[in-house]
Amino acid sequence: MKAKLLLYGSAILLSGHAYGCADKPTNPYSDTTNLPPVETRPAGTDYKPAFPGQTRIGGIKTTTAYKVDQLATAIGRPWAIVPIPGGNFLVTDKSGFMQLFDGNGKLIKKITGLPAVDASGQGGLLDVAPDPDFTTNKTIYWSFSEKTGTVNLMAVAKGQLNEATGTVDNAVVIFRATPALKSNAHYGSRIVFDKDGNMFVSTGERSILEGRVQAQDLASGLGKIFKITKDGKPAPGNPFIGKAGAMPEIYSYGNRNVQSLDIHPVTGDLWECEFGPRGGDELNIIKAGKNYGWPTITYGTEYSGQKIGDAIQQKEGMEQPVYYWDPTLSPSGMTFYKGNAIPEWENNLFIGGLSGSHICRLVIKDNKVVGEERLLADKQERFRDVAYFNGMLYAVTDNGNMYRISKQ
């Protein structure tokens, strides 16, 4: 398709300035669906992809005019932004509390009364998700790093949101990703509900070598995606129920550090994005009982540049990523665009990039990535989470800023 006019983002909207519309395109390519790959830096390895299009797919450019509002600044240390019924948003703060905002970024209430978090390093209060029946039961679920003695782990708790008092009532921990280790990194973790009201919960392998090897161990809760009930029990039909020595809550394994989870709005498949080490960040479709390979196979290297293990990228019985990045994106929260207010974004995937300092837009067709675009790269921020609501995208950054992207 030939675009008569490129209407895309070039400057942030703040106090009424919109992305781009009247400027003549400076890109010499007139076809916005067939641009060069957005990544131009050299790869960190000479590893070869397993199939065409597994990395550095062709670039694309949004043609629908959109605007970006900076809704709030200095909101603290946000980790997740999650819409709740009624149009408000819960934003978790790593320090151990939540904040309730309206859709225009106005702070409504600070929410306290949660169990203590271990807020060192990458730890703290992490994700939050409303119960599918939130409108009637006001229940929310959240993940956090929990300290026990000199060690810690990722835990999931639930309670009732009391907006009037700014507290969470009846808070109780329902699940722990054991074993606890002495580390302040790689907790995961995201929470997403399936259509049956069960939760997918991700965790990391805690970064240290002791935890890394446990990503392949079904007796360990490290480097896994779990599927649990609202009470923290193994979800019915889980792949390892009844398997000797295996945690029955495990849904997939061999995952490194999963901070991105969402369910495809059409297929119902669970998608995740996880940190590789130095390069090798992965996008996967998660299937019950499958092994995603870490640390046996990877497209990355140690942070020192040394090879990992046998330096192999493929092995029978281990899943290949749908897509990978080298150099790294450092993927955090992600969401599918579930509407068509911006028509070409329908069912596209948007991923917050930390070291990548942009929001990554991926066009997916037949479970393959067919195009990639970078949004808000001019802001040079670490995008911690991205959420979809009512035709718009909301994002929070490590600098404590909140943005909204909507059709102009």
Automatic annotation (TrEMBL):
It comes from Lacibacter luteus. Residues 77-402 form the Glucose/Sorbosone dehydrogenase domain. Residues 1-20 form the signal peptide. The lineage of its organism: Bacteria, Pseudomonadati, Bacteroidota, Chitinophagia, Chitinophagales. Keywords: Signal. Gene3D superfamilies: TolB, C-terminal domain. The keyword tRNA processing does not apply. InterPro entries: 6-blade_b-propeller_TolB-like (IPR011042), Glc/Sorbosone_DH (IPR012938), Quinoprot_gluc/sorb_DH_b-prop (IPR011041). It comes from the Bacteria. Pfam families: GSDH. The keyword Signal applies. This is PQQ-dependent sugar dehydrogenase.
